[in-house]
Amino acid sequence: MAIITELFYLPSIEYFSAIWEEDVIYLDLEENYQKQTYRNRTQIQLANKTETLSIPVFGGNKKIKTSQIKIDHDQKWLNVHLRGIQSAYGKAPYFEYYFPYFEKVFAKKFDLLADMNLALLTVCLKMLQSKTQVQKLDERMANEGIRDIRGVINAKKSYTERSIYRAIPYPQLFGLDFVPNLSIIDLLFCMGPESKSILIQSQKND
Question: Which Pfam families does this one have (predicted)?
Fold first, then answer.
């Protein structure tokens, strides 16, 4: 089985619920880049709020392909993201095991957003012990009956409006109320090897 998706930054639990049992993920990198989407942003849970981490990019307001979007390293986003992740999850049970893998990707300071997102996605799949392969989409494949969820996981709409993910609570670090559908790193740092089980339960089969 295969699925066609966009490439997101440290994707949400919903995203991984969508791709979980697929043999291959085909990533569309030749689409025109879209602003204010999960392509360059993700959400984590801090002590008193849900925080959106956003990567500044060049040319996001023009018709530029996702594969060509460059990260604006002149803005000090990297330190903000690393500090935010450490502040949010430094005391999580599995932080010390997994964080070095992510830190190593950030340290490379990729020029292109797609290259960094792909490296981070690969790390996430490895941490989840997933056998799913990741390949770049050849547009001819889109006409071969492959499941296509491009445009479905929309940052401007709640996951509750889609039939992909159902919130399965797990122990989080902050707050009394469970916050669903954060970045996959929330699940990984909090649940470690049990993340796989949570993802399977999170799949909505309506």
Answer: WbqC
Show Cβ contacts of residue 205 under 8 Å, excluding neighbours closer than 6 positions: none
Segments of 81-183 assigned E as strands? 133-136, 147-148
pLDDT score at 145: 78
Identify the domain containing residue 20 by its residue range. 2-202
Q: φ, ψ for residue 121 (rounded to 5)?
A: -60, -40
Q: How many other C-beta atoms can be found within 10 angstroms of the C-beta atom of residue 181?
A: 22
Q: In what order do the strands lie in the sheet with 24-27?
A: 133-136, 24-27, 2-5, 147-148
Residue 87: its H or E element: helix 77-89
Pairing of strands 70-71, 57-58: antiparallel
CA distance 65 to 32: 4
* Look-up of token digits 């999170």: 202
Q: How many domains does the chain have?
A: 1
pLDDT by residue (tens digit) across 103-153?
999 999 999 999 999 999 999 999 999 999 999 998 777 667 789 999 999
In three-state secondary structure terms, 118 is: helix
pTM of the model: 0.94
E strands in 74-196: 133-136, 147-148
